[in-house]
Structure formats: structure tokens, C-alpha cells
Amino acid sequence: MVVGAASTGVQLAEEIHRSGRPVILAVGGHVRMPRVYRGMDIMWWLDAAGILDERYDVVDDIVRARHVSSFQLVGSAARLTVDLNSLQQIGVRLVGRLAGVTDDGTAQFSGSLPNQCALADLKLGRLLDTLDSWAIEHRVDTQTDPPERFPPTDVLPASPLLLPLRTGDIKTIIWATGYRPEYPWLHIPVLDAKGAVRHVGGVTPVPGLYVMGTTFLRRRKSTLIVGAGDDARDLSAHLCEYLGQLANIT
């Protein structure tokens, strides 16, 4: 059983199943994304249309944006799309979000799987509409393949809500649920109630202390390696201004 259906979860589910082992994938909130759209890699579209450059101070809810799952994208020479439909086609079983495990060893799953999939499909449609509009506005629509839409996620309505773990049918559980940072070494009053560093675009309340490399730090692409450069330039400018103020004081 693989728990988590973002980029790591779907890739592991596919690779393990193709190795000859049956796989159950526990699916919570996820971001459905085609690897290729209209003949171009989806990352090209997100970059060209400015979506990756969307700033932290213009989104409606930055806290929510920083907790969105990573894209369901897998890198391969064939640039194939790996999503819940393709996984089911090869035999991967889907269940809802893992809610807990009882004392007798029974895994409990949420019944929200159809709703989660419908929401992911809806958001994908909105994104593709945005990309198509950008292509028309910037006159690149004739230089790419025609617009396309993808079949909705086909979820079996009777996905199990309970699975016994002590029968031996499930021998391995792989957690693909991401991670959260811990700062036991940071003895400065800058952490919030959940243990995360409080900051606004990487600038913390403590003068001279900055954050780099976190999700949606200053831009949507901060989550990716490609976003580190712009973030570093912004924070370097802020740091230089701070050091200049110190020099004037002294």
C-alpha cells in the first residue's frame, strides 16, 4: 500500500505494480496534471503563462497555497502522463485518504475519494482554460497543437473504507505523504504554534533572519529548484538594505 497520491506516490505505485506486486494507493487531496499539453511540456506552459511566477502577496490564501500537494508529474523519456486513470488501467486499486488504524489493525479510509477526484478534475479544467486563453492572447495558439481536455477520473464507487492489515495481504506500507520541517536547534522566538518559522515572503520577525527553500516562499515556483534564484535575489536585496541600516546606525 502506498499512502499519498502526489508526484512520489503515483510514481511509486506505477513502478511497484509494474514490477509484479499488487498495489493499493490511498488518495487524498491531489493536483492532477498532464505531462504534455498541446504538444509542449506542462512546465513550459506554466512558466510561459506566468503561473509559476505568481507571487505570495497576490494569492487569496497563502497559507492554503503553501499546503497544496505537489503535481502528479513523473519524469520519463516518453513523457507519459501518470494519473489515477492510468494507474487503474494497469491494475492499481484506489482507496480514499488513510484516516487511521484501529487497535485490531484495520486501516480506515475516508469516503471522500470521489469528491477529491472531482475537485482535482475541476481545477485541471480551469488551469487548461487559463493556458488556452493565454495562448490566444499571446498568439501562440497556432504554433501548438489544438486544445484538448482529458477524461474525468474514473473512480469505482465502492472503494473499500476498511482493510485488515493483519491478514498478510498488505505486507508493506510506503508513506509518500511529504514531510514537515523541525527546528529543535533554533532557539529564537520565531516559530508558530505548529513549529514552522513565521515569515512574510522569507523575511522573519527577527531582523537579519531569513528563510529560503520553503514551499511558495515568494512565488509559486519557490517550491521548485528553478525558483531559488529569484527568491535569493529578492532576499539578498532585503538583507543588503538591512545591513546598510545597521552601518548607518553604527
- What gyration radius follows from the Cα positions, in whole Å? 21 Å
Number of strands: 9
Task: Label the structural class.
Answer: alpha/beta
Runs in which pLDDT lies below 50 for 5 or more consecutive residues are none
Mean pLDDT: 92
> Major sheet: size, sense and barrel closure?
4 strands, parallel
Order of helices and strands: EHEEEHHHEEEHEEH
Overall outline: flat
Q: What portion of residues belong to β-strands?
A: 5-15%
Q: Record the strand order, biggest sheet.
A: 5-2-1-9
Number of helices: 6
Taking the alpha carbons of the first and last residues, their distance comes to: 61 Å
Helix percent reads 25-40%
Number of domains: 2
